[in-house]
Amino acid sequence: MQQQKTRSRWLAIVGLLAGLWLGGCDRQTTAEGTAAEDSLPRVVSTSTIITDWAEQVGGDEINLTGILDPGSDPHVYEPVPADTVALEEADLILYNGYNLEPALIRLTDSAGANAQRLAVGEVVPPLQTELEGRSSVPDPHVWGSAENAIAMVAAIRDALIELSPEDEATFTRNAEQLTQELAQLHTWIGEQIATIPPDQRKLITTHDAFEYYARAYQLEVVGTLIGISTEEQPSAQTVQRLVNAVRAAGVPTIFAETTINPRLITTVAEEAGVELSPNPLYSDSIGAPGSEADSYIKMMVANTRSIVESLGGTYTPFQNASE
Predict the structure, then answer these.
(1) Which element (helix H / strand E) includes 317?
(2) What would the mean pLDDT of 245-267 be, rounded to a whole number?
(3) Chain Cα centroid distance, residue 44
(4) Count of alpha carbons within 13 Å of 16, Cβ hemisphere only?
(5) Which are the contacts of 48, defined by CB distance < 8 A and separation ≥ 6?
(6) Does residue 218 come out as left (phi exceeding 0), alpha (psi in the -120 to 50 range) or beta?
(7) How would residue 28 be classed by pLDDT, with cut points 50, 70 and 90?
(8) How far does CA 231 lie from the centroid of its chain?
(9) Backbone phi, then psi, for 281, in 5-degree steps?
(10) Of 49, 123, 196, 274, which has the highest C-beta tally within 10 A?
(11) Residue 120 in contact with residue 50, Cβ under 8 Å?
(12) For residues 115 and 243, what is the distance between their CA atoms, to the nearest angstrom?
């Protein structure tokens, strides 16, 4: 009996020592992982679209922080203290520019003073938009054309190479793959829009975020409820003017957007006697993880499908050659 007790005691001691050793290994592994992550270049991005591109190009060679969550509206986003910390610690800040994210741009000018900065969207010559009572301003929604996206991905690649030259081969390879997919996407969107009857290639949305898309793929933006910034508040007269424009255009469907309350655009559809698409368009943000639009490419595919099916075209699923 005494021998059995002694054996049990030794087994308990051995088990305890093994647990302590394994726990130490786990902590060491975690610490090593954290140290490795901390040694990577710190990149901060603003919009979810830029975060998606930076993640694909940078891969495991950067420590990436995206400020905006999927579904957030960059026009009206108000920074929180964690954003200041991220920008102060950044080695590189990627933002859209053209005043898409005004509060974050102001914060970047102060908190991100020590980091390299790239206004990714500003590598694309902008379309100009006339604002009532003001001179024209650049339209910030440059990602609406997949060809523009190719230029922006190249700019992100070059900024990452400058930040971390030893990873040039990785950044270049990742950017090349993404660029091939974007070129394929650009061709596919044009083919899909071409199936819409010519007299129905007219787009009416909540805010003026699709001019680049429309020009790239041969659509006409007939009207919008508000302009390029969602900070605007439409008047009753503005709503009525859009109702009249919808009736005159003869379109079967108009579109809400995922980042904007659909109440007013729903009213426009009801008063004009047209359908509101059951699938709102993704304008200023990609979709939530696991959704049909949780990357830039998938967002563009989802939007194109909604537009084509709602305006009388024939949709053919996108086949990504890299998959």
Answers:
(1) none
(2) 92
(3) 14
(4) 6
(5) 66, 68, 69, 70, 72, 285, 286
(6) left
(7) low
(8) 19
(9) -85, 145
(10) 49
(11) yes
(12) 47
Contact 75, 193 (CB under 8 A): no
Token pair of 137 as six digits? 């301003």
Does residue 136 surpass a pLDDT of 50? Answer: yes
Copy the structure tokens of residue 153.
């991905």
pTM for this entry: 0.87
Q: Which residue has the tokens 């950067």?
A: 62
Residue 146 has pLDDT above 80, yes or no: yes
Read off the tokens for 143: 């990602």
What was the pLDDT predicted at 243?
94
Secondary structure (DSSP) of 265-308: HHHHHHHHT-EEPSS-B--SSPPPTTSTTSSHHHHHHHHHHHHH
Q: Once rounded to an integer, what is the mean pLDDT over residues 288-311?
A: 97
pLDDT interval class at 236 (50, 70, 90): confident
Tell whether the model's pLDDT for residue 257 goes beyond 80.
Answer: yes
- DSSP for residue 196: S
- With b for 16 or more beta-carbon neighbours within 10 A and e for fewer, the 74-87 pattern comes to bbebebeeebeebb
Q: What is the pLDDT of residue 235?
A: 84
What DSSP assignment string belongs to 43-103?
EEE-SHHHHHHHHHHHGGGSEEEE-SPTT--TTT----HHHHHHHHH-SEEEE--TTSSHH
What is the Cα–Cα distance from 44 to 115, expressed in whole angstroms?
10
> What per-residue confidence (pLDDT) applies to 232?
74
As a whole number of angstroms, the distance between CA 146 and CA 303 comes to 13
- Interatomic CA distance for residues 323 and 318, integer angstroms: 11
Q: Is pLDDT at 233 greater than 50 in this prediction?
A: yes
Parallel, antiparallel or unpaired: strands 116-119 and 92-95: parallel
Spacing of C-alpha 19 from chain mean position: 45
Q: Give the pLDDT score at 135.
A: 74
Q: Which two tokens stand for residue 41?
A: 């270049």
